[in-house]
Amino acid sequence: MSDDAATLNSSAREESGAHVETSSPLDRIPKNKLVLGLFLPMQEGAWSPSRAPRTTSWTFDYLSKCTLKAEELGFDLAFGLAQWMSKGGYGGEMRFREHELDPIIVNTALAAMTKKIVLINTVHILYAWHPLHLAKFGAALDHISGGRWGVNVVTGYKPSEYRMFGLDMIEHDLRYDMADEFTTLLERLWAEDENLTFNGRWWKTEKAFLAPRPGARRPFLVNAASSGAGLAYAAKHSDLIFITSPGGAEPAKAYETLPPVNSRIKDLAASYGRQVKTIINPHVICRPTEKEAQEAYRRILEHEDPVAADNFVQTFVGGDTKSWRGHSRAQWVIGGNVHLVGTPEQIVEGFVKLQAAGCDGVQVNFFDYLPDLAYFGESVIPLMKQAGLRA
């Protein structure tokens, strides 16, 4: 083929939506020292089984306002969790997390409403999904969003969720072997320009083909990992890895225990010839004074729904997941992985220390989302820029 013909063929492939590059999707995120994400309150009650007054809602109107505000403020990411709950959710008077909008559906709508922010949603891939389903849905979302969509690949760890789909619980490490095969097939479907036949241990396909495929770079692949098997999967496939603090939610313990976690993940990724970013989930309670912030913190605890809180904690600590083991019951009532409570200056100081501990990003959640997010934008983001964390 002549040079001119090769150039023409490359241009035609690019115009048709063919995969012409394999560079990391992370290249789409602005080069800030600290990635900034918002953990959307997709579930009723979000992360806090507390009945303290707040506006936070799981409705699409509320979620869209949060996402549009985050985009206006320059957030890089907005993330939606997925869950499968029985009637009453985690129980209690508040029926904690009974209501939820499915995040992949929400993100489809948000993709048409936003222009810059990256939209990531969870999919439990072992709950009767086939990689071809996700490849096709993901390619469509990639086009709708202009390359701003990603999937948080989750295997699931709750026996109750598996039973909802008529499935038996799968052993921990085997789940990640299955996820590896699933994601390998998913990535091939996104990348290859011919019919694909694949005969794996768990998934098979004959003459599968996607048109259109994603654009120049595949969608973001994300997951949360802490176990050996989970980290091995993440290092091989994921671009962005959610991490938890082994020391619990108390900031000083998080700053102390996070560096080896981040180093291990990045060394594992390097062994595959890859670079990844790690991101952690701080619950931010920010007020003009430290006294006001601490009062807001105590108010959440004083209004806890004890039944909902007990059930919420037990679900996480009673399974085979390795994450969140260092968190106390009270820290679960507040929600989030690290608690940053204080003035705008103290919040930014916490972000600086998390970045120094090796975290590439923070994905924040709030108790009263819209007013807390507005105050964060007004008072915290300017200080993040002064600290060199954001451009």
From TrEMBL:
Annotated region described as Disordered, given as residue ranges: 1-25
Residues annotated as domain Luciferase-like: 37-360
GO terms, molecular function: oxidoreductase activity
EC number, as in UniProt: 1.-.-.-
Pfam families according to UniProt: Bac_luciferase
SUPFAM superfamilies attached to this UniProt entry: Bacterial luciferase-like (SSF51679)
Database matches in InterPro entries: Luciferase-like_dom, Luciferase-like_sf, SsuD_RutA_monooxygenase
Record keywords, A-Z: Flavoprotein, FMN, Monooxygenase, Oxidoreductase
Protein's name in the database: LLM class flavin-dependent oxidoreductase
